[in-house]
Specification:
With about 240 residues, this protein is mainly beta. The protein has one domain. Helix content is about 10%, strand content about 30%. The longest helix has 8 residues.
Length: about 240
């Protein structure tokens, strides 16, 4: 188990995601972690606006670290809409079904009883950003890294309905996922363990999906009800540089 000192050091993570938006390549020092996010066929999803007009939107995304006992350490990248509650025309729906596993692992309870950031208490700017619209490379610099860490990624589209997760599903039923403005297919969770002794690339594997209605933080097994959401992400790899 991580000591208190190591935990505090692990929290001092700098995500240089904004550098990946520039044209010059990222440069790495020994101990940095390279994250390659390769988008899949359904990374961009048609989101309805009004009068038959729609917009291609990328998904919501959270990247965070845990120890090997499943204890949350810190978030390193979270998209604006959930990190700062920047949903547009959501009629007060805070989208607890968007990234429920990350929300519950983080464990910060808001005054309204939801495990979500709020507009008055958002996540800090240093770990938030827009969802990339194409494949992206991210650089993580850890203040301390002497024990294995688990990298987790949770991803989810709004209104990603299919024949199981329909927009007219009734609340408190198996396939209810927030109604007409909710998720549709639930969030997908990817994970991999990295160690300080290895510099080999590690591919995150799909470990399950989040709670469809966001009522808990459990990981549920993937079954035939998850369809196009399986190709939101192409692949995600992490690699320690030496």
């Amino acid at each position: 188990m991580l000591t208190k000192k190591l935990l505090l050091a692990a929290l001092a993570i700098l995500l240089l995601a904004h550098s990946a938006c520039k044209k010059e390549p990222l440069t790495y020092s020994s101990g940095d972690i390279k994250v390659n996010l390769n988008v899949g066929k359904h990374w961009l999803h048609s989101y309805p606006l009004f009068l038959g007009i729609s917009k291609l939107n990328p998904p919501q995304l959270a990247i965070w670290l845990e120890d090997t006992n499943g204890r949350y350490l810190t978030s390193v990248y979270v998209t604006y809409k959930i990190a700062r509650q920047g949903w547009i025309a959501n009629n007060g729906n805070r989208r607890k079904e968007a990234l429920p596993h990350w929300c519950h692992q983080r464990g910060v309870l808001a005054p309204d009883g939801l495990y979500l950031p709020t507009k008055s208490a958002p996540l800090p700017d240093g770990i938030t950003g827009a969802t990339p619209k194409a494949s992206k490379e991210l650089k993580l610099t850890l203040a301390s890294f002497s024990q294995p860490l688990v990298v987790k990624v949770e991803v989810n589209h709004s209104t990603d309905f299919n024949s199981y997760y329909t927009k007219d599903a009734s609340p408190n039923t198996t396939y209810y996922s927030g109604g007409s403005g909710g998720s549709g297919q639930p969030s997908l969770i990817y994970a991999a363990t990295i160690t300080p002794s290895s510099s080999q690339p590690v591919t995150l594997t799909l470990v399950g999906h989040g709670s469809p209605d966001g009522s808990d933080g459990k990981i549920y097994p993937i079954d035939q009800t998850i369809t196009s959401a399986l190709s939101i992400v192409g692949s995600i790899t992490v690699q320690l540089t030496k």
